[in-house]
Structures are given as C-alpha cells and as structure tokens.
Amino acid sequence: MALEPDTLDQISQAISHAIAPAFLLGAMSAFVSFLSARIDVVLNRIRGINAISEDEDHADLKIDVSRLNRRLVLLRRALLFTIAAGLVTTVLMIMSFVLAVLGVQHVWGVAILFIVALALYA
C-alpha cells in the first residue's frame, strides 16, 4: 500500500504538530514524579505524627494531621488531573497520526483535545 503525496504531506504536518504535545507530555511526567514525591513526604509525616504517643511533649503535633490530610487530598487530585491531561494528550497525538494516515484534516480535533489537555493540566 503506497501512500499518496497528499497523505505524506499530512503525516509530516501531523509530526510537526506533535512537537508541542510531546513537550507537554514530558512536563507532565516530571510533574507526576514531583507530585508522587510530595505525596510520599506527606504520608511519611502523617505516619511519624501518628507514631507519637499521647504522653510525649510533641503530642500537640497531632493537630497537624488534619491539615496534612487536606494537603494529601489536594496532591492526589492534582495527580489525577495531571494523569488525565497526559491521557488526553496521548489520545491527541494518536488521533493526529491516524487522521493524517486516513487523509482527514485533523486540525480542529487536535486543537480541541489540546485545549482540554491544557485545561486539565492547569
């Protein structure tokens, strides 16, 4: 199956359009790594506070657990949205190449998915 020149042009255009989403995926993977590390720190802090006995001098730190739990909820939500943005970006890139191979204009679909990915990432 030989590809027609128009299809090759669309594939090269899809490749040039995939550069920004590829960088976005790289940023998202770094952010997922950062969020995972922060979640680990918060969980270790909660475990450390819960290990303190009631009669120790630092028992007043147990008040801090509710604030740390709230931080944990926010970090997990940020991780969820970042992963969702990564999935939308991956679908965007796949759709861009599939539509280019099929010879269909992909500009509007890619633009909408890119906006959705950025909105999830924001």
Counting helices, strands and paired strands, the structural category is mainly alpha
**Beta strand %:** under 5%
Overall 3D geometry?
rod-shaped
Helix content: over 70%
User: Secondary-structure element order, as H and E?
Assistant: HHHH
Largest sheet features: none
Task: Give the averaged pLDDT, no decimals.
Answer: 83
Number of strands: 0
Describe the structure in your own words.
The chain is an all-alpha fold and 122 residues long. The chain has 4 helices and no strands. It has helices at 5-17, 19-50, 64-102, 107-121. Helix 1 packs antiparallel against helix 3, helix 2 runs antiparallel to helix 3 (64-102) and helix 3 (64-102) packs antiparallel against helix 4 (107-121). The longest helix is centred in the last third of the chain and has 39 residues, at 64-102. The mean pLDDT is 83.
Keywords:
122 residues; mainly alpha; 4 helices; rod-shaped
Which helices and strands, and how do they pair?
Elements: H1 5-17, H2 19-50, H3 64-102, H4 107-121
Short note summarizing the structure:
This protein has 122 residues and is mainly alpha-helical.
